[in-house]
Amino acid sequence: MARHLERIGDFLRGLKGRQRLLVAFAAGLVSALGFEPFRLFPCLLLATAALVLLLDGAASEPRRWRAFAWCGFAFGFGQFVMGLHWIVYPFLVDPSVHAWQIPFVALLFPGGLALFIAAATAAAAPFWRAGASRLFVFTTAYAIGEWLRGHVLTGFPWNLAAYAWGALPGVMQAAALVGSYALTLLTILLGATLAELFRTRPDWRLPAAMGLVFLALWAWGEIRLSAPLANVPGVTVRLVQPDIPQAEKYKRQFILRNWRRLLVLSTAPAKPQPTLIVWPEAAPPFLLTAVPKALDDIALLTGNGRVLMTGAVRREDGEELRYYNSFYIFGRGGELLATYDKFHLVPFGEYLPFEATLGALGLEKLTGIAGSFTPGDGPHTYDVPGLPPVGPLICYEILFPGEVVEPGKRPGVLVNVTDDSWFGPWAGPRQHLLVARMRAIEEGVPVLRSANTGISAAIDSYGRIKAALALGKTGYIDASLPAPIASTPYSRLQGWWFWLFAVASGVVAWLFSRGKCALGARGK
Question: Which residue of 80, 180, 315, 360 is surrounded by the most CB atoms within 10 Å?
Answer without folding.
Answer: 180
